[in-house]
Amino acid sequence: MTDPGGVVAAATGVTALTTEEPVGRPTGWWGMVLFVATEATLFACLLGSYFYLRFQFGPQWPPGGVDKPKLLLPLLMTAVLVPSSLPVVWAEHGIRRGRRGRLRAGLAATLVLGLTFLALLAVEYAEDLKHFTMTTDVYGSLFYLITGFHGLHVLVGLTMIGWLLTASLRGGSFGSHRHERVRNAAIYWHFVDAVWVAILFTIYLSPRL
Amino acid sequence: MSTTTSTAPGVGRDDLARLAEHWAEPRSLRAWFTTVDHKKIGRRYLVTAAFFFVLAGLSALVMRTQLARPESGVVSPQEYNQIFTMHGTAMIFLFATPMLFGFGNFLVPLMIGSRDMAFPRLNAFGYWVFLFAGLFMWASLPFGAAPNNGWFAYAPLNQVQHNPGLHMDVYALGLLFLGISTTSGAINFIVTALKLRAPGMSLNRVPLFVWAIVATAFMVVFALPALNADNTMLFLDRRFGTHFFDPSGGGNVLLWQHLFWIFGHPDVYIIVLSALGIVSAVLPAFTRRGVVAYSLIVLSIVAIAIISFGVWVHHMFATGLPQLSYSFFSAASTVITIPSGIQIFAWLATMLLGRLVLRVPLLFVIGFIVTFVLGGLTGAMFAVTAFDQQVTDSYFVVAHFHYVLIGGAVFPMLAGIYYWLPKITGRMYHEGLGRWAFWLTFAGMHVTFFPMHLTGLFGMPRRVYTYRSEPGWDGWNLVSTVGSYLLALGLLLVLVGVVHALRRGRPAPADPWEGDSLEWSTASPPEPYNFPVIPRVHSLHPAWDARTAESTTTGATAERVLSDGRRTLFTSELDARTERAVDMPESSFKPLVLAGALLVFFTAMLLAAYPVAVVAALVVAATIAAWLWPPRRPDEELGVAS
Ligand code: HEM
Ligand SMILES: [Cu+2]
C-alpha cells in the first residue's frame, strides 16, 4: 500500500486519504446498484402484469389461435446471453491486475455474444410477427412489450460495453484504481442476463406448464 | 454554545483562499446554466416547486370560484376537468415531492457535513428535468390539451376511444419524463447519505430529517417503477393500439389501478414522511432540547416506509362493484396511525419537556399537529366500511385528504421555509408578517375544508363542475370559497415575507436559532464549499457539541481535504469512518444539454414526430457517453465521483 500524497494523519484516526487500494465501496457502485434495483422493480411490475392479465383472461393462453411459444430459439438465446457474463468478469479481473489486453478481449467477447443475442431476437420476431403482433390481443401486447423492453436493455448494456472498449483502446482510465466503470457496466450486464432468465420462464416456459 | 463560522481560527488564510478558488463557479450567465452546487440547485427546486404551487393554487381558486354558487358558468365542464386534474397532478408531482427534494438538496449535505451531493452533475440534471417536465405538462393547459381524467387517471377513461386528443398522452409522457428526475434525485440522496457523512456520524447520529429523506428516497426507488410501467402501457395503448387496459382485446382496466396504487399509496407517505422530517428538524431549536425518543422515531420512519408497500388494495375496496373509484386516502390513514402516532407523541413530549420559543416556525408546527390529527381522525373513520360506502367519492374525501396534505405537508414546509430562510438567504424574516401569514393560512385552511366534511355528508359528489341548489350545499360551498381566498391571502403573505426578507431583512448570523444540526455551524448563506474543514461529529446534536466545534476550528480532521482541490470525504456506510478523499466534478453544460435533449424527445413523442424523437434519443446517448468519458490520466490518480 503506497501513499502517494504522503498524507497519514494518524492523529485523527485517518490512515491514508489516498491509497493504491482504496477502502470501501465507491459512490458509483451504490449508484449502479440502486439503479439496477429500480430497473429490476420495473421488470417485476411488467412480469407481474403478465401473470395478472393472464389469470384474469381465463384458461386458454395464449388466446385466439396463437400457438404456445416455441422453445428452440429462446433456449439458443439463453445459451448465448447467460454465458456472456463470464468474459465481463474475466475482463474486470484482468484490469484490476492492470492487464489491459484481457480487459479488451473480455469486452470484445461480450460484445459479440450480445450482438448475437440481438440478431437471434430479430429472427424470433420475424417468425412471431407472421402469427401475431402487438395489436392482435393482450397476449401480443405483453409479449412484445416485455421482450422488446429487455432487448432495449441489452442494447443499452452493449452500448456501455462498447463505450468501455472504445475508451480503453484510446487509453482512458476509468476513474479510480478499481476501474469503477468496468465494474458498474458488469453489474448492469449481469442484471440484463438475470432478467432474461426471468423472461424465459415467464414468456416461454410458463404457458407450457 | 459557540457558533463556528467559516473563518475558523485553525484554518489558514491561504487555505480559505484556495478553497474559494477551487469551489468558485464560473462568472456571469454561464454559471447559471452550468452550476452543480447543491445549494443553488436546492434553491431552484424550492423556487420552481413554489411556482408550480402557485399555478396549482390558482387552479384551485378557479374551482372554488366556480363552485361558490350552484349552477354557475365560470368554466365549462371540459375546462373544469382539466383544471382539477392539473391541480391534483401538479400538487402531488410538481409541488409536494420536488419541494421536499428542494429542502433535501439544500440541507442533506449541510446536515451530514459534506461539501456536496454524491453526484453533483446528476443533481443538476435532475433539476433541469423537473423544470422541463413541469413546463411540458402545464404548457398543455392553454391549448386545452391538459390531462382531464383526475390525478389517478383511471382506465378505461384514460383510453383513446373514450378520451381522444392529447390529454392523457401529456399525462403519461409528462410523468415518465418527470420520473427520470425523481429517480435520479432519490438515488443521489441515498448514496449521499450513505457515503458522504462526516467522520463520526454513525447511523445513530444521523439527523431525523436525513433519515426521513433517505427513507422516502428508498420508497421512490421501489414505488416509482410501477407508475412508469403503468404510463408506458397507457401510452402504448393510446398510440400504438396495444390492449393492456382494453377489455375488448383481453386487457383489464383494474391492472391500471393496481399498478397506480402500488405506486400511489407509498407516494402519499413519500410526501408526508419527509414533511414529518422537517418537523423533527425544526422542533429542537424551539424547544431547546433534542426530540424525544430518537430511535423510536427512526424505527417508525422505517416501518412506515416498508408497511406502505403492502396495503395498496385498500384504495380499491370498491372495485368489485361497477364503480371503479375509491377514496384515495381511506385506510391509509389507519395503517399510518401507529408509527405516525409514535412520532406525534414524541413531538408532544418534546414540547412538554422543553422550553417553548413561540416563533413562526413553531406556530406552523403546532398548526400542523392540530390539522394533521384531525385529518388522521377522518382517515380512521374510513376504516368503518359502512361509513366508507356512504362518503366514498364525496366531498368528505376531499376534506380529509386536504387536511392530511395541507396539514401534513404544506404546514411543515412552511415551518421549514421560515426556519431555514436565514440559512438559505442569509436574511432574517419579519416576525410580524410571518405571524399574520400563519394565522391567515391556518384559519383559511379550516374555513375552506371543514365545511367540505358537511357537504360531503350531505351527499355532494367530488369531481363535479357544478351542482343543483340543494338544501345544505349552497351555504357551505360559499363558506369554502371564502375560506380558499383567505388561505390564498395567507400564502401570498408568505411570499411577501420572503421577498421582504430578501430586500429588507437584517443579515442573519450563522446560527440564529441555536439549532442542533451541522448546517448551523456554517455561514449564512454557506460558502460554496460548505465547510472549511470537514467536521468530526461526536453526538446526535453536533452543533450543540463543543467537541465538534473544536475539531472544526482546529482543522483536526483530514487536513488534506481542506483545500488542495475540489474535494470531499468518503466515509464508511454504517459507522462513518474516514475512507478516502474524492474529487468532485466541476460545473458543466452537459446536464442542461441532456435534459434539453430529453425534452425534445418527449415533445416529439407527444406530437408523433417519431423521426425527431429518434434523433433526440441519439443525442441523449451521445451526451451521456461524453459525460462519462474518462479523463486521460495515470491510473494512480484519485477517484472521480460522477
Ligand atoms: C391551496 C388550497 C387548496 C384548495 C382551495 C384546493 C381545492 C381543491 C378542490 C376544490 C378539489 C376538488 C376538485 C374536485 O373534486 O372537483 C381539490 C382536489 C385535489 N387537491 Fe386540492 N386544494 C388546495 C390545496 C391542495 C394541496 C396543497 C394539495 C396537495 C399537496 C392538493 C391536492 C389535491 C388533490 C390530489 C386533489 C384530487 C384531484 C383529483 O381528484 O384528481 N390540494 N382541491
Ligand atoms: Cu393508501
TrEMBL record, chain A:
The chain crosses the membrane at residues 29-51, 71-91, 103-123, 143-165, 186-206. It comes from the Bacteria. One of its GO terms (cellular component) is plasma membrane. PROSITE patterns: COX3. The keyword Cell membrane applies. CDD domains: Heme_Cu_Oxidase_III_like. Belongs to the cytochrome c oxidase subunit 3 family. This is cytochrome-c oxidase. It comes from Micromonospora terminaliae.
From TrEMBL, chain B:
Its EC number is 7.1.1.9. It catalyses: 4 Fe(II)-[cytochrome c] + O2 + 8 H(+)(in) = 4 Fe(III)-[cytochrome c] + 2 H2O + 4 H(+)(out). InterPro entries: Cyt_c_oxase-like_su1_dom, Cyt_c_oxase-like_su1_sf, Cyt_C_Oxase_1, Cyt_c_Oxase_su1_BS, Cyt_c_oxidase_su1_bac. The lineage of its organism: Bacteria, Bacillati, Actinomycetota, Actinomycetes, Micromonosporales. PANTHER family: CYTOCHROME C OXIDASE SUBUNIT 1 (PTHR10422). It is an enzyme of class 7 (translocase). It comes from Micromonospora terminaliae. Keywords: Cell membrane, Copper, Electron transport, Heme, Iron, Membrane, Metal-binding, Oxidoreductase, Respiratory chain, Translocase, Transmembrane, Transmembrane helix, Transport. The keyword S-adenosyl-L-methionine does not apply. Belongs to the heme-copper respiratory oxidase family. GO terms for molecular function: cytochrome-c oxidase activity; heme binding; metal ion binding; oxidoreductase activity. It comes from the Bacteria. Residues 32-538 form the Cytochrome oxidase subunit I profile domain. GO terms for biological process: aerobic respiration; electron transport coupled proton transport; respiratory electron transport chain. This is Cytochrome c oxidase subunit 1. GO terms for cellular component: plasma membrane. The chain crosses the membrane at residues 45-63, 83-112, 124-141, 170-194, 206-227, 268-286, 293-314, 326-350, 362-387, 399-421, 433-458, 478-502, 598-629. Pathway: Energy metabolism; oxidative phosphorylation. Cytochrome c oxidase is the component of the respiratory chain that catalyzes the reduction of oxygen to water. Subunits 1-3 form the functional core of the enzyme complex. CO I is the catalytic subunit of the enzyme. Electrons originating in cytochrome c are transferred via the copper A center of subunit 2 and heme A of subunit 1 to the bimetallic center formed by heme A3 and copper B. It is a multi-pass membrane protein. SUPFAM superfamilies: Cytochrome c oxidase subunit I-like. PROSITE patterns: COX1 (PS50855), COX1_CUB (PS00077). It is found in: Cell membrane. Its main location: membrane.
